[in-house]
Predict the 3D structure of the following.
Amino acid sequence: MNLFQIPSFVPVPSREVMFNLSIISVIIGICLIIAGLILNNKNKKKGIAPWICITIGIVIIVNHGIQVLFTIF
């Protein structure tokens, strides 16, 4: 059920393109988590940058992982 019409000048990507973008985003999230863990182990004193990388990576993985699951099923 469409609540509103999308104007014709707004490009809407296909399902395959959205699926590929979600997979790429999950990979980027994994890379952010790995980078955050490496930065966290490298520094003796705990910094905020590694935790920001880890948190953003987790949020990206959860968000796009759910999108991938809904695309598959």
Observations:
- DSSP finds two helices and no strands in the chain.
- Residues 15-72 form one domain.
- Helices lie at 15-42, 49-72.
